[in-house]
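Re: weekly structure request thread

Next one in the queue (340 aa):
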Amino acid sequence: MKKFLLLIVTAVLFAACGGEEDRNYQFFNGDAIGTSYHIIVANPPADLDAKIQSVFDEANASLSMFNPESQLSKINRNEEVTTNQHIATCYNYATMAYRLSNGKYDITVAPLVDLWGFGPSGKAVEAPTQQQIDSVLQFVGQDGIALNYRRIFKDDPRIQIDLSSVAKGHTVDMMCEMLNELGVEHYLVEIGGELRCKGISSSDRQWRIGIDNPDFRVIPGTSETIATLQLPSEKAVATSGNYRNFYTTPSGQRVVHTIDATTGQPYQSSILSATVVHERCARADALATMLMLSAEPNEENLALWKRRLGEHTEILVVYSDENGKSQVYASEGMKEYMVD
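Done, posted below.
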């Protein structure tokens, strides 16, 4: 369930210098695990570049479906391997989202993701036939796997697992845990649009980030950001959406990357993007994708979803109403983070 993340970080991310004399902010950026990253750290310890790379190496060795030597790839090949904490953590968050979504969010969707052209096999020339989809659906379903005694057991050896809907968020958490262990008090970590912060920014205030407006390229005169959030310390944000990661087949069919595991089809929804705030970025990551697949986009239903997700989870959903006009739902707690 590979997704393209839609958060953009506002100018504070690119002005990581200044502030109080005892806080020297430095900026680290690059490409890793198939995406870009931007990290701001106040008073970084020595050799932080190498420590950042080691976290990415650890994530790639554990969670990547595109790395044939990763632990996940070995599990998908039915090799007898003991799961590490990273696989187990992602599995547990994914299981929570699977149950909330009544099976629409499902990490065993990997063969369908690949069939539709978003997996290791590369872009599809044409959409698959219903016969091809039905043949794959026979071994898709998270009820067919279980984590016991530090191993993942499959009911069918053909089952394949895709953790990309939670792996970037978990990698953000891994990076933040590394920085916490080093005693860093102020930082912002952004990987592929997922982010988490601690302390304050170089502007001597809480970190501010912008939420991308999914319509700004389509509707003239609309802003590039639909909201700006000012986040307390130890908060994480993840956003999911379909408007960038898609392709159009020669026959004109628009194929989005979010696949409904119950039908085997790309999930076409009037939800344009879903943003989740939580303490753990991995949880926010999984829930953002789950909302794209599950929530009925109107005020009443989205308020119900907010209650189901609990008091420590806030949501912001951009959707098209029955007239095709963009609407924004923000939970009450999310509104407290929003600034002009």
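The longest helix spans residues 164-181. The chain has one domain: 1-340.
Next request, please.
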